[in-house]
Each structure stands twice: as structure tokens, then as C-alpha cells.
Protein 1
Amino acid sequence: MSNITTYDEEKLIEEQGFDDHFHDHHHGDKYQSNFVTTYIFSMDHKMIAKQFLITGIFWAFIGAAMSIIFRLQLGFPEENYAWLKPLLGKWITLNSSGVGSLAPEFYYALVTMHGTILVFFVLTAGLSGTFSNLLIPLQVGARDMASPLLNMLSYWFFFLAGVVMFSSLFVSTGPFSGGWTAYPPLSALPQASSGSGAGMTLWLISLVFFVVSVLLGGINYITTVLNLRTKGMTLWRMPLTIWAFLITAVIGLLSFPVLVSGFLLLIFDRSLGTSFYLSEIFIGGQALDYVGGSPVLYQHLFWFLGHPEVYIIILPAMGIVSEVLSVHARKPIFGYKAMVFSILAIAFLSFIVWAHHMFMSGVNPFISNFFVLFTLIIAVPSAVKVFNWIATLYGGNIRFNSAMLFAIGFVSMFISGGLTGIFLGNSTIDIQMHDTYFVVAHFHIVMGVAAFFGMFAGIYHWYPKMFGRFMNEKIGKLHFWGTLIGSYAVFWPMHYIGIAGVPRRYYQFDTFEAFSHFGAMNAFITIAAIVVFALQILFIVNFFYSIWKGKKMTNKNPYGATTLEWTTPIEATHGNWPGKIPTVHRWAYDYSKNDEGADYVSQIQPLKEGEEEH
Amino acid sequence: MTSLIILFCVALLVVVTIQVSKISELASKIRGGEDRYLKENDRTAKGLVVFMVGFLVLTIVSAYYYKNYMLGYGPHESASEHGGSIDFMFNITLIATGIVFVITQVALFWLAYVAREKKGRRALYISHDNKLEMIWTAAPAVVMTFLVVSGLIAWNDIMADVKEGEDYIEIEATGYQFGWEVRYPGPDGLLGKKDFRLISATNSLGQDWSDPKNHDDMKVDEIVLPVGKKVRVRITSKDVLHNFYLPHFRVKMDAVPGMPTYFVFTPSKTTAEYRESLRNYAEYQVPADADDPTGEQLWESFNYELACAELCGSGHYSMRRLVRIVSESEYEDWLSQQTSFYESTIKEEAGDDALEEDITEDADDTMDSE
Ligand code: HEM
Ligand SMILES: [Cu+2]
Ligand SMILES: [Cu+2]
């Protein structure tokens, strides 16, 4: 065994690989013949991944900037915001002495857009879209996605969704402002809120396009994983990233259509006068004709997607983190099978817990018994994952680069946020905590920050695969420390505010004596948020600067990783491998298996005589 | 001007980033060497431990610092009977998760530190350990079972509706954009029928005057309730979703148009008693109004509040009503001073015989239709 010190991957692929005659058919490469087909209407999965990523970064910037504006209102409600008038126009109202303040209607529009953008455009499309596209073909050993055309359409539907959403920011009645959950009747009636007029119409159109994008992508991911794995890549040899992307796509495929059906009924109520969600409403001095509908029905349909959606967001991050932890700890992921089964368990359970968002919605309290039970069962596979990640670090030989640091940060965030889920999942405690800042703290930490950490880990780790260069490590670490400390500084205190009973989605807290004691803390949170925002700009600068000026990748497998993406050439063109496709002989986690020589064994390396698989 | 400054700062940041990255790249080229790299790696690993310690310490210190503002702690014992069981569930969950939190955060950062890269070290090849994995699957399962069972017992108890023959007061809260209307049943103890189609400037709830139960119903500005008596709040909405939220009583329930909901609770502390308990805490011995240092102190000006906890539009943050809990006799006094809306407004205007008709045309009637 000890005779293997370095690998000549090309030679191995040449000897062992599988010849699909790919390059015989693709002479001249119709996929990348000119600028437009290479960079814009590209059908190459690696380019589409970059498109998703860069679009995601764009939206993350917009969404985060919005949060800074509404955080200013919460942290410093008395300040003069006349200086924002050039940007926000009529949404900054000036009083007689010229002091400008943010209009409440617009505050709610910002919060709503922030939530929608971050949840759907950044953490769904930007995260899963980027890494599923980049890694699925590369890691299963495929030339591309099963349908490159659908893949391209998936991106462009996402783009279209973005254009529509962006345009809604400029309609005169303002963008939708009824919360990212869009509960009717508020979202159904323009009389109830000015954002529920044209803004809401655009919001719905945008999200329908978005769902089309997710479905096109998802079908592709599933088909590719199931059908295009290279020889030897059995399901149980797939890296956890692929498992996570596969299951994410399955969840998306099963839950997003339900959201669309919910939206369709809402569209009917809005424009055809049906009463699916509306009943006995008196608004704007008028009794409306709707009778017999139920707003609670919408909540069921919404959360039937909404809860799986949080796992659509977090599972890819979990997959990425599993991979990054293992590579940089130079150890196999601990409990590979348990990791897969816990993904499956979480995915299954995520479909039967949705009503834990509705304990206080007026549903029969008896029903809640089941949802409490299932919800708290999810804590078990979640805990298993956490323990396995920690055990993966034990006895490792860890390189603390930016990718690894963000992966460790992910685990810390997931613990902190997952544990507060145990409070909320218990309906008794949720009586008090529901719709307070405690919920805001919970989901930002467990989903928002954690998923971002997973995304950052992935970006730093696979950046060389995407751009052939490295991001700057010094700035990467600064980015990590600032974001870790800053995010806790922003979201940790919100637990206290929540336990004090302060409701979420409040434009200001002074109207109530009970909620008015946290002025200093809110100011602190706002300042921390601004610092974290500035650090993300640093990241963006690093990202774009490194595309052209980053340290060049000289070794095609810079981390000594076992997975297939690192057997492709540094500048992989369409088809990924220049000659044959590599075949796979072992699982993805043979790190430090040998006592001497290289501390990893690539998946393309055949088992030695007498060697056990793991 | 300010935007210029911001632009300038951003530009500065960009320049600094680019320079730093250039320099650090140059520097690493000059220095090179594995030793340098390992040293840096070491430092980062230590940083993680420092972070972990700082994080845990700050968590405990800050929680202690804010303790007396948080419900369930310090002076903020629940003001309702069922609230205690919610606070209890919260606390046992806090203990269970707190232990896990500390153990896992310490293990995460500490093990990462211990396993930092060392020259010549090779990581262990451990792929799984069935026994260990069984244990850490079973342990959370056991804890969860305990939390689920105790939680659900409390839940079914709290959410149970009143039973027939039970002694309770029923009141009604109706949410609208943006406020609450509160209706008391009057001497008959029963709330009259209403219909949203009857709502008008003079009949803001749409009470059906042909239902005699409506005739003694009263609309009040302030919710006043006797201590120790069960209250069933019927919760409805006129327009969009709202949520009837009494933080001090651990009461929360959505108000859904077209579907009345309810919450049953028993106040256990009068407003005066709550003020007394606040009085002992330094946090509440400060002037309520910072501009008036000699005025009322925070504990003196305390009142229970009703808030909205479901986004309902641009005025969602302002749906405030006061709640006052008093002794039984004070309650009776207060109640006797309230007059039925029908008696005070509708009857004189319309006359008894006009009941069946829609009397709402009356334009110059100026009931508060806030
Ligand atoms: C131990 C596992 C978890 C449990 C028991 C849990 C439980 C809950 C419960 C009961 C709520 C509703 C709270 C309320 O509105 O009153 C909630 C909200 C939420 N959770 Fe979790 N959660 C868990 C993990 C996660 C994960 C992994 C994510 C995301 C990746 C997540 C994201 C969210 C989001 C986004 C919301 C807020 C939705 C909204 O109302 O806007 N949770 N969680
Ligand atoms: Cu959920
Ligand atoms: Cu509200």
C-alpha cells in the first residue's frame, strides 16, 4: 500500500476510464462556439452554476441593503433620514421641519422583499442552483446535466423571476408588503394594503416563474444523479454533497407545486372574485361579497412548501459542509451512512410538520399534538448530523482555511439555531414565542446565517474549480471572523427581545410600554448589522478581484481531495474530461487511510489487493 | 452629502481590500515556507477557542443582565394561571438545550483546535462507530420524548375550551385595521349575534339588533377583568388576520375573519400587584419619562397591554389597548358604570319598533367608529 505516493490521474483515467466517445461527436463544440453561447445562453453546467452564483450575489446585496435600511429605522427611529430621499423618494416622508422618516408602509415592503429575496433568490437559487449545477456532473462523473437545455431554461426562468420582482420595486403603490409568507386576506385585498395591489400581482408572477425554474432544475438534478453516474459510482459511493442535492431536488419537486396551487387560488380570489381564502370581510367602509373561504387553508398550502423549503435551503449547505469538513480535516466523514439516513429522515419528516407554523392560527388544538410530535422528532436526525460533524473533526489534521472555518462556523450556527427550534416546536412554548423576535432569532441563525456559512464554505472551497484561481485567504479569514462574531452579535440578542415578548414585524417598539425597553440593544444590533454588511462587501470585492487577479491554481487537485471534480483539468471545457470519463472504485472519503504517502486515495484509484472498502 | 460619504467609504474599502490582497500575496511569496503556514494555522485554531470562550461567557453574562426584562423571570412571573406551565416548559427546555449547547459548542471548537494540522501528523481513519452512534441517537430521542409528553399535557390543558356549566366571563375582541374593539356581554352574560353585512358607521361590529342578547352588550375602551376568574375571549376579525396577544398573560391567538377563535385564561395578578413586584427591581425604579425625572416611575406607570401579533398592514405595530386586572368588587363597580351601546345610542335614535329595519342610514350619528 505504501507504494502509492502521488497519483497520475490522467494516466489512471486513460487506463481505467470509460470511453463514451463524447469528443467524437462534439467536434467544434457547438455549446461554446461564441460569446453568447459561452457566457449568456450557455448550456454548460459550470457556466450556469456561475450565472446562478453571480445572480445570487447580486440579490444578496440588494436583500442585505434593504435590511440595513429597515434596521436603521429599528435601531435609530428618531434619526433624520432625509438623506435617503434621493434613493427612496416618496417613501421618506418629511415633516414640517424637514426631518425625514421611513414610511411604515415602506418599512413593511422592505421587510417583505428582504425575506422573499433572501429565502428564494439567494438561499434557494443562489445556493442550490450554484452548487447542484457545478458539482452534480463533476462529482458523479457526467459530461453535463441530463438536459443542458432545461438547465439553461432553469436559469433564465430564475432571471425572469428576478426581473419581475425587481420591477415591482418601482410601481407607484409600492412592492408587496404583507410579509414573505403572504397570508391572505392582507395579500388578497388591495384595500388592505397598498402593496397588495400591483406589487402583489408582480410578486406572484415572479414567484410562479421562480417555481418553474426550481422544477426545471430539480428534474435535471434528479435525472442526472440517477442516470448519469459514471461506472462504479454506486449510490453508496456518492459524496454527501450529491446526496444532499438529490434529496433537496426531490423535496422541491414535491412541495413547490403545492405552493403554486396555493398561489393560483390566491390569484383567483384576487382577480376572479372566488372565495377560497376570504370570508366575512368588512374593509374600507364596505362589506365584501366573499363568504365561505378560509385564510387558514392558504396557510396549510403555504407551509406545506414553507417548511420543506427551509430544508431545501439547509440540506445543500449541510452537504457542502460535510464535504469541506472531511477534506480539510483529512478524515472520512464520520458515520457516512447515518448522514445519508438522517438526510432521508429529515426529508421525510419535513413533509409532516408544516402546521408547527400554525399552532396559534386558529386550527384545532388537538391537531397540534401530531405536529408537535413529528416536529420534535426532527431534532433527532438533526442532532445525529451535528454529532457526526463534530466527530469528523476529532483526531483530524485540520487546515484552517476560509472554507474550513466557514464550515465549522456553520456547525456552530446550526447548533445554536437548531436548539431554539426545540422551544418553538413545542406548542406550549410557542403560545408565548410565536411571532416574536425569538422566532426571528431562530430562523435567521439556523437557516439564514447557517446557510450563508455553508454557501461561503462552498464558494471558498470550489472557487478554484470555478475560476482556476484562489480567493485571497487573508481577506477570507477577516471575512470569516467578522461574519461569525457579527452575526451572533446581530441575532443572539434577539432571543432576549423575543423572550421579553416583543413581536416581530413591528415598525417601532415605543407604542407599547412592554416592548420599549430595548432601545440600546436595538441600536447595537443595527450597528453590528452594518459592520456585517460592510464585511460582505469585502467578500464581494475579494470574489470579483480574484476572478482576474487571484492566485493561480497550479495543481488540479490543490486540496488533495478524493472526489472526481478534482480529476478534471484546471480549465475544464465542455464535457469536463478531455478524454475518457473516470470510473470509480471506492467511496469518497478515503482520507488518511494509509500510514504513508499521500493522505488521500482518489475515488478513481482501484482497490489494492486485499484492501477493504471502508 | 451623506451619500457621498458612503460612496467614498465603499470606494475606500475596495481600494484597501485590493491593496491588502496584493500585499498579502506578495508577502506569502517572499516568506513562503511550511512553518509560516503552520504558525498561521495554529493561530487561527487558537482564535476559535478564544471565540468559543468569549461566546459562552457573553451568552451567560448578557442573559443575566437582561434577565429582569424577560418574561418568566425576575418580576415577570406570569400574570395568568396557565402561564406558569408555559414558563415551566420554557425553563426545562432551556436547561436541556443549554446543556447540549455548551457541550456541543465546546466540543466543536475544542476538538477543532486539538486536531489542528501538525507537521508529520496523520489524521485517524475512523469512519463510524455503531455503538457511539446508537447512543447519540437514543439520547436526544429520550429527551425529546420527555419534552413532547410534558409539553402536550400542558398544551391540551391550556387550550381546552370552557366546559358546560363552568363559571366564566365571556368577552369578545375584534381586530380591525388598526385597533381592537372589545365587547362585554352585559348582565345576561351572553354576546349577541353579529353579521359583517350590518357593519356601518353607527354599528361598528355589525350587531344584529333583532337579537335581544345584543341589547345589553357593552363596548369598552379598556379591558377590565377580575382577578382569579376564568375568562373566555372570543376572538374575531373584521378585515384581515390579526392576533390577540397579551404578553404578560401568555395569551396569543389569531383573529381570523369568518372564523371566530378563542382563548381561555384566568388572570392571577392584579395590575396593582404586578406594579408592586416591579417596584423591587432597579430596572423599574427609573422615571417612566426620561424628560421628567421627578414624574412617575416605570413601575408606577406599568399597565398590562394588548398587542397584535400577526402582520395586518402598515399600522400593525400600533394596535394597543390597555388591560386592567382588578379585584372582584372593583370589577363589579366598573361594570355597573358601563352602559350598553344599544341603550345609549341605538334605542333613542331608532325607537323600539324600528328594530327590524336597517337603522344605519342615520348619517349624523357620531359614534366612535375608530
Ligand atoms: C430542530 C429543528 C427545528 C425545529 C424543531 C424547528 C421549529 C420551528 C417552529 C416550531 C417554527 C415556528 C415558530 C413560530 O412561528 O412560532 C419555526 C420557524 C422557522 N424555522 Fe424552524 N425549526 C427547526 C429547524 C429549522 C431549520 C433547519 C430551518 C432552516 C433551515 C428552520 C427555519 C425556520 C424558519 C424560516 C422559520 C420562520 C418562518 C416564518 O414564520 O417566517 N428551522 N421553526
Ligand atoms: Cu417549519
Ligand atoms: Cu397586526
Protein 2
Amino acid sequence: MRPALRFAALLAFRQLRHRALASGAALAGVAVAVMLMLVQVAFRNGLYDSALALPRALAADIVLVSPGYRALTFSPPWLPRAALRDAAGMPGVAETAALYAYSGQVRSRETGGNLSVWLLGLDPASRVLDLPEVAAAQRLLSVPDSALLDRLSRQEFRAVLARFAAEGLARLPLYTPAADLAPVLQVRGLFALGPSFTIDGTLLVSDLTLHAALGVPLDRVSIGLVRLRPGADAGLVAAALAARVEGRARVLTRDAFLAEERGFYARRTPIGLIFNTGLLVGVAVGVVFILQVLNGLVDANLPEYAVLLAQGYRPAFLAAVVAQAAVAVALLTYPLALGLALLVTRVAATATRLPLGLHGADMAAVLALSLGMAAAAAGLAALRLRRADPLELFA
Amino acid sequence: MSRAVAALRGVGHGFGSGPRRRTVLRGIDLDLRAGEFVALTGPSGSGKTTLLTLLGALRVPEAGRVCLLGQDMAGLDAAGLAALRRRIGFVFQRHHLLRSLSVLENVEAALHALPGAEPRRDRAAALAMLEAVGLGGRGAEPTARLSGGEQQRVAVARALVRRPALVLADEPTASLDGGTGRAVVALLADLARSQGCAVVMGTHDERCLDLVTRRLHMEDGMLRQTEQAA
Ligand SMILES: Nc1ncnc2c1ncn2[C@@H]1O[C@H](COP(=O)(O)OP(=O)(O)OP(=O)(O)O)[C@@H](O)[C@H]1O
Ligand SMILES: [Mg+2]
């Protein structure tokens, strides 16, 4: 059956090409549907990447979190600093550090209103965040009430950034319910983390400033960071550590931690659902357009298919022609869809400052999906082949 | 006596049921032998096409027995009938070539369905057959560029390239002008004779009847006369 299959492919391609103009609109529809799927994936990547920017920046091989911890959002539940001290004495552990994460509000001098901020506290002398500008600027934080501001914070912070650019310093009054005690933060430097969909702006302060400003006790750590000696096995140390801090903290290797963060956004937030729904709509629209191409193809070629049946070709051969045509539609429209998607993604990334992008695996997955769409459409279009009847060729 | 290609005994066929029932073929007995060129004439609606589609394994008779190429059709399923059709060539009133394929590819297409198809050998056979119908050198052209007569000659080449035991032609000249139609039938007769296959041609075209070896006349679903041509 090999030559017959090759012939099926040739015939499918030629018949498609013969009707290229007639099916132009539907082919464009297929390309647009696949493009929307790709853009959808790029947006999902952007959302995940922005949500994971801080977890990824943590300078840790192993992470300790509270047993009730779910994700690194505004104010995660705390774990006792003692657990971190226990970790410091474990074999294989090089050093430990603490990150404090709290939500807060600052007063906007421009509007008089409040802006919500994420206040991240760290010891200016220790390595907590692996972000290029932070390493250089975090020493400035040892001056009380100093802060670094995320230059990629949302638009509302534009005025603060402008003031900093002009004067090298910007004053940001913290808003606290006990207003007369409210300290004023001094922005002395900038760093780059990027906005996420839950956070407007991020400020980095020293742990002592955070303690003074919000009154939070420093033995309550938001995230405990553990760095290993070279050659130490993260899995083994994590297991030993988990036994040691049993009940007080949960111990995760870096990879497990990042996977859990990602899983949180995929499963516990509407992002996963919204994304999957969008993808499903793209799939449905794509199937409809492919089906339109294939139905047009079958209708236009019914007498030709009848001739093939008269010649002794089996109905399965005709189904193979339709299937090959479907695959050809998926493969030929994909490069166009990908090109458009990359273009749209680049424009949107510039506009939103979100790290939108497509990885090779995403492109392959969407290509596989569109081949699946082609298979579904081919199955439906093949039903129409029953109307090919050699008896209609006779006079 | 040459090889039997088809044998029909008491074949009857009709369409519809109840008051709309219409009997189209009654008590047909027919023997076809290799090398015969049979013209099937008769008034419109007399059942010529119905008989041809039975001979082409495109339908099974309601009554009687049809033995085609040594096989009793009664015992065959759809796949068996399809296998039988691979040994039969068809020429229709309209050429029904595959528009998106070239002339040569149309002829080759008749071979891909055959068991033991072999692309290189099939191409050589298709080229030789195009030569035989006077279209050598035109294989690469799209079928739409050929005249009606040339297209019908490609259809003849397509039917005969598979070296069928039986060729069935239904009004092959009806879409062509007289001279062209006769030339196509003459070509068909020539090639069939050289291959030794049987041809049955349903026709209204008086001008072609001198080219056949036998004439069958249908009237009211019955084969009324059987005359041996000179
Ligand atoms: N599928 C069908 N359903 C119902 N009636 C049919 C069908 N096919 C043919 N008939 C009827 O059977 C009769 C014989 O038809 P057939 O096509 O065999 O005649 P014919 O001799 O080929 O006629 P013509 O010379 O006009 O082609 C006609 O009355 C036709 O209406
Ligand atoms: Mg007829």
C-alpha cells in the first residue's frame, strides 16, 4: 500500500493547492486561531515568569517556609528564625539568610492617596537576592529608613522614579494606622524585579528598618534561605533538615520550591483556568476553520473521489487523502501563525513590561495541538466522503 | 474458444419498492469473452447503464447470477467488489480526469491502487500508454489544457494502462463531435484488441457500430437481439 499512500499525499497536496484561493479565508482563519493559541501561551508564560521572578531571585539551594505557606505573595505565614539557626549547623550547609516579606502602603505625594507596596526586608550584609543591582546597592540599606525601589514598578510609581532621577533621592512616607509614628522611607537606589499581576511596586529595605517601620518581630522569618557547600547534595541535606525542623518549617529544594510556586499559580489561581479556556477556544475555532477547508475540498472533488472508488481504491484511501490534506493545512499554516504570534508577543511585551515569550517546547506543543485539531477535523470531513458514488459518473 | 470474462444468468434488477417499484432488467443471459468488443444499444431508459454498473461490480443484482472474471459476485463483500474493480477499466461519458494532476499522473493513478504497484515500472507503463493513445510528450501538461477528444483519450489510456480483463464504456462519445468520438472508439477497439480484453460500450452513436464485434440491443430491460458483426 506504500505507493497508494504516497499518491494520497500527492493528491491531497495538489487538490489543496488547486483550491488555495477558494479556501484562502479559511486557511487564514486556521493561522489566526493557532496564532491566538501561541499568544495565549506567551501570556501565560509572562504571568508565570513575572510571578516567579522573586522566587527565582532567591539566593538559595534549599528554602525553608512555614508549614502553612502556600506561595510567595504579599505576607506569607512566618517560620521561627530558630529553625534557620538549626539549619546553619547542619553538615553540607554553607550559610543561611532570611527574607521578610510584608505588604504595606506608601503615601503618594502626587495624588495624596495610598499605593500598595511589597516591602521586602533583608540583612544588608548578607546575600539574599541574586539580582545584579541589589548586590551593589544593598549596603545603602544599612542607613536607617533607606529603601531601594523596583524601577519596573507600575505606572503609579513613575513620579517617584522621576523625583529620584532628578534628585538622587525620593522620600516615600509609609502609611501606618498610627499616623504620627509613620516613618518616611528614603529611596536611595533602584533595582529591577518587574511587576506581577498582584503587586504594584516593590521596595527593598533592611530588616531593621522593616522592624522599626512595621513593628514586625525579626524572629519571624518569611522565607529561610540555605546555601550549600560545593558538592553537597541538595536532596539529602533537605531531607536531613526536614527531620531536624519537623513541625516548625517545611523544607524544599530550590527546584521543588519553584515547581510549587508555579503549581500554585496554575492550580490555585484563575490563571490556569483562564489560560486553558482561551486555549480551548482557539482549538475549537481552529477545528472549525480546518473543517471548512476540508469540507470545501471534499465537495469540490466528489466526482474525482468517485472515479477513484470505481478504480478499486478503498474508502480508507479517500479518508487518507483527507487526513493528509488536514496535516498539510496544519503544517502549512503553522509558520505563518508562529511569525504573527512572535510579532504580537513582542509588541505586547513592550507595552506591558511582562516577560512574554515562547519557548521551543511551547511551539512544539502548540504544533502538536494543531495536528490534533487537524485529526479531529479530518475525522469529521471524512463523513462527507460517503457521498462519493461511482454510480453518479454514469450517463 | 477464448476465455470467459463474464457470465450472467437470469439477471434481474429494479429500483424502488411498492407502487413506485420499477423493474429495469429482466432475465438477462449474457456471456462475454476476452477480445470481444460489444456495443450495447437501446432506447433511453432501457437499462444499458444499469447493466454496465452490474458488470462493473458497482452494484449487485437483485436476481440471477453474475459471474465476473471467474468470481460469483454473490459471495463478495465491499472489499471483494473493490478488488474485482481493480481488474476492470471504466470510460465515462465525461472524461472525469483528476483536475489537479497532470496527464501522466492521471494515467499513473490507475496503477497505484493495484497490488504490487511499483512506481518506476508504473511510470514507464503510463508513458507507453500515453504514446499509444497519441499523447506521448504531453504527459506533463495539466488536463485542462487538452481538448475534449484528447481528454477522452487520456481516459482511455487510464482505463487500459492497468491491462484490465474488461473495459466498460458508457456513452464515451456523447460529449464529443462525431469524428472525434469515432476516433476515440477506434482507439479503444485497437488497444483492447492488442491487449485481448473485452469491451462493453453503451452507446446511442450509430457511427461507431461498425467498429464492434458484437451488438446487443436492449429494450424494456431485456436483451432483444444478439447479432454478430461482420
Ligand atoms: N438509482 C436509480 N433509482 C431509481 N431508478 C433508477 C436508478 N437508476 C436508473 N433508474 C431507472 O432505471 C431505468 C434504466 O436506467 P438506465 O440508466 O439503465 O437506462 P439507460 O439505458 O442507460 O438510459 P440512457 O440511454 O438514457 O442512458 C430508467 O428508467 C431509470 O430511471
Ligand atoms: Mg445510460
